[in-house]
Amino acid sequence: MFGLVKTVFCPQAAIVFDVFHIVAQYNKVIDGVRRAEARAAMETDKNVIKGSRWLLLKNPENLKEKEIPRLEKLLSINKNLSKDELKTIWQCNDRQQMSKALDDWCTKALESGIPALKRFVKTLRRYEYGILNHADYPIHTSKLEGINNKIKVIKRQAYGFHDLEYFILKVKQACL
């Protein structure tokens, strides 16, 4: 689909992948690893791992004071669950710097030996062009997703417009 849109309608467009969507996919991988580790854990460690899903997925700055020691204990039990610095790749300003950060992250993930992380690295490599394009075009999809949400609300409130031009005017009015 991306190829068709780019070549037919916008041949000069560069496809940029937003950090939010990549991290969302990574969170699914981490959740799968956490479940596998919980199944494989010894009985004494299961109590620490059980109920740790949101603790692992939280951003460090959002951790509560009492959650920090639990996270540290959880990570000391199993290094496979360690939080990663995937988001820092998008903080690079330069394409070469971003490429190096991505290479470093992928190398660490591959060295972990975790099959789910290896598959995730393959996905990242397949879409590397869109990730690296973020260095040239540091945009995020949050505004676009907000506008899409507005359009959906307008469509729901109207129970469908029979006149496309009127619908377009309503969307333009909402986005001013």
Word description of this protein:
The protein has 176 residues and is mostly helical. It folds into 2 domains: 135 residues, no CATH class; 33 residues, no CATH class. The protein has 10 helices and no strands. Helix 9 crosses helix 10. The radius of gyration is 21 Å and the shape is extended. The N terminus is likely disordered.
Describe the main β-sheet briefly. Answer: none
Cα(first) to Cα(last) distance is 29 Å
Strands, total number: 0
Q: Which structural category do the helix and sheet elements fall into? A: mainly alpha
The count of helical stretches stands at 10
Low-confidence stretches: 1-5
Please tell me the overall pLDDT. Answer: 78
Overall 3D shape: extended
SSE series: HHHHHHHHHH
**Can you give the helix content as a percent range?**
55-70%
